[in-house]
Amino acid sequence: MEPPVRPALKRSLSLLQATLYGLGVTIGAGIYVLIGAAAARAGMHAPIAFMLAAAMMAPSAASFAELAGRLPMAAGEAAYARSAFQSDKLATLVGLLVIAIAIVSAAAISVGSAGYLSVFINLPEPLLVVGVVLAMGTIAAWGINEAVNFAGTMTLIEVGGLILLILAGAGAGPELVTRMPEALPASGAALSGIFGTALLAVFAFIGFEGLANIAEEVHNPKRTLPRAIFLTLGVSTVLYVLVLWVSLVAVSPAELAASKVPLALVFERLTDATPHTMSAIAIVATLNGIIVQIIMSSRVLYGLGEHGDLPPVFAIVSRQTRTPLFATAVSTIVVLLFALLLPLGHLANITSHMTLIVFALVNLSLIRIKARERVAPAGAYVAPVWVPWAGFVSCVALTLSDVGWLLFG
User: Taking residues 355-366, what's their average pLDDT?
Assistant: First the structure.
């Protein structure tokens, strides 16, 4: 008698679902949480810092787009390192770093979410964090279609909130245009703040690389994933820059830095309306960021378990939900511990540094794979040869800029 076939992940996600997933990770981890910290570091120059971060992340996005087509599998970054360097140990290390990024990022977003929730629910922050993380972990375990559709719906709401804020700023007067010269740096100190904020902004762009880890659940990944990666990076950059500038014109950088609900404060200042509307949208955005990060970390745990890099229990897929329940539960519990133990600023900086390390390794992986395999699989996106080199250099430069900001900022 043949043993029963072990259930596998369900390949069902479209380009729209994948793009909404990527935007959900990115925006939930970005502007709703970090706008105050960005204003504290760079002041009126924060939009320039975010544009710089996006430009420096673009080559890495192209590297991920090519590798996702060459090797469309869960635990993508680990698979890329294994293929490039023929090293299971390096692959395991990269996979664990990706898991750590997702978990620490989700923890940071959980702290931000609790701040917005406190506008409506008068409970201690730790209790709010516990409720948020456990609820999102439960939805992540429910099923990939259900979880991604839930996240996609919330993504539409959070993007709508940002567009609402942009429109309110555009209707408030000509200052959005007349004050543009204030965004340009006029001193070395301003440049130092911009580069330091660019590293922080890396946290805000975490998301497009997560698409590589749902490759086994996407229809036609060679075609779908590169498009979703580029759409995620492009749309989030435009929204970030516009929202940052509207916010800085409406509210002083010092006020943004001091507020636990910065976008709600901006909305109140622009419209004279209650901050509850924007706080509610911000809650949706941050909840979305948590759920998609839990999904991503659980899929990397699954991929490492599938390849024997971690105990096989992580690769067990439920027949009912078609999700890796044990991996999802472990991810949820560790997210909760980090959220309760570390403040938001520390979590964001840790995430940014780990992300740059992984991106640098991914770019090196593509450099090596391109040198060895001159022809990409049919139908896969192919980046120019210089792109992974540019991605590697940009990751190193951003890391060094943080050292400069700490010394001279």
Answer: 91
Domain residue ranges in the chain: 17-408
Q: Which of 105, 38, 27 is nearest to 352 (CA)?
A: 105
At residue 349, does pLDDT exceed 80?
Answer: no
**370: helix, coil or strand?**
helix
> In the prediction, which pLDDT does 144 show?
64
Per-residue pLDDT band for 1 (boundaries 50, 70, 90) equals: very low
Phi, psi of 13 (to 5 degrees): -90, 135
On the 0-12 / 13-18 / 19+ scale of CB atoms within 10 A, 156 is middle
Distance CA 114, CA 134 (A): 13
Question: Residues near 21 by Cβ (< 8 Å), separated by ≥ 6?
Answer: 13, 148, 151, 152, 155, 210, 211, 214, 228, 292, 295
Q: How far apart are CA 26 and CA 17, in angstroms?
A: 14
The residue with greater pLDDT, 203 or 65, is 65
Tell me which DSSP letter residue 13 carries: B
Nearest to 67 by CA among 86, 46, 56, 83: 83
- Alpha carbons 270 and 161: distance in angstroms, whole number: 14
Measure CA 183 to chain center. 25
Whole-structure pTM value: 0.79
| Encoded tokens for 206 | 């975490």
Q: Which residue is it, tokens 């096989």?
A: 312
Whether the CB-CB separation of 335 and 110 falls below 8 Å is answered with yes
**Helical ranges in 74-143 per DSSP H:** 76-85, 88-117, 125-142
134-154 pLDDT, tens digit per residue, is 988 887 777 666 666 777 777
Beta bridge partners of residue 123, listed in sequence order: none
Residue 161 clears pLDDT 50, i.e. is over it: yes
Query: CATH number of the domain at 17-408, out of 3.40.250.10, 3.40.50.170, 1.20.1740.10, 1.10.1040.10?
Result: 1.20.1740.10
Task: Give whichever of 27-41, 105-119, 205-219 has the largest mean pLDDT.
Answer: 105-119
DSSP states along 24-54: HHHHHTTHHHHHHHHHHHHGGGHHHHHHHHH
Q: pLDDT by residue (tens digit) across 322-342?
A: 778 899 899 999 999 888 877
SS3 84: helix
Residue 122 in 3-state DSSP?
Answer: coil
